[in-house]
Amino acid sequence: MAAPASTPPVETVVRVLSRDGASIDLHLVYPADGARDLVLWLPALGVAARNYLPLARALAEHGIAVALHEWRGIGSSDRRAGRTVDWAYRELLIEDIPASLAAARKALPQARFWLGGHSLGGQMATLFAALHPHVPAGLLLVASGSPYWRTFRWSCGIALFAALAPWLAAMCGHFPGRRLGFGGNEARGLMADWAHSARSGRYAITGMTEDFEALLARLQLPVRSLRLCDDWLGPKASLQWLLGKMPQTPRELIAISAADQKGLPANHFAWMKSPQTVAARLAGAVIVRPPAG
């Protein structure tokens, strides 16, 4: 593995416009002397992109550029979910992620492209790769997995929540995640798509005709998955259910414990405060791959 860089990385912000007019800030963090690899990073549900700046800086120390995507309705987004403003997974997959990808590749056109994500971001990275299997060099997943209720220790509670979440979003005009402590204030359509996958264990996205289960089954991209050992929101069974949809992918599964985290809890979010271990494991996947072409 390459030695960490000593020069501080370059950090810039680019305003990105989706085809339907939605806009976000895309944070770009890259080594001052350039980067061979670029990771487009997709956040967890309800988490603003700026919270991943420590991860981006840590990856830049390993020579890897990072573009931090922002979810619609969160942080720098000009949209907020409400009764008259709604969206679902479809908008994220066909409008927003492609816009961030285009801006990142314009900024660093020579870099080899990787797609990564945390929690929901890992799911969305996987679904985008299923739609565009020749675009990324591989997938980097952290604390991710399917929300299928049967894969969780408190399975009945997850099933009940998945049944109630769309109803609550419809009643309020949006899902009040900030008040409930799960995600952000999310769009009704997005929570309906999330709840469908949580109830059924399958991906069927509102407004899209693609058979995602079949697309995932054909995917052959390398996948490196990092699981936090004390993560009840991303248990081993949840990750295995997601990876099981992609039987043809070469994969590396790495478990990270509190000892690896130097005493920090190895849970769903604590690693973000000190992401050096996670960055080193992700960088290992990128660096060991041979150059494209």
Observed structural traits:
eight-stranded mixed beta sheet; alpha/beta; 293 residues; two-stranded antiparallel ribbon
Short description:
With 293 residues, the chain is α/β, with parallel strands linked by helices.
Topology:
Elements: E1 10-17, E2 23-30, E3 37-42, H1 53-60, E4 64-68, H2 89-107, E5 112-118, H3 120-131, E6 139-142, H4 155-172, E7 175-176, H5 177-180, E8 185-186, H6 188-200, H7 212-218, E9 223-228, H8 236-244, E10 251-256, H9 276-288
Parallel strand pairs: 3-4, 3-5, 5-6, 6-9, 9-10
Antiparallel strand pairs: 1-2, 2-4, 7-8
Q: Quote the CATH topology.
A: Rossmann fold
CATH superfamily: Alpha/Beta hydrolase fold, catalytic domain
**What letter string, H or E per element, gives the SSE order?**
EEEHEHEHEHEHEHHEHEH
Count of individual beta strands: 10
Strand content: 15-25%
CA-based gyration radius: 18 Å
Strand order within the widest sheet? 1-2-4-3-5-6-9-10
Q: Helical proportion?
A: 25-40%
For the largest beta-sheet, the strand count, sense and barrel status come to: 8 strands, mixed
Number of domains: 1
The assigned structural class equals: alpha/beta
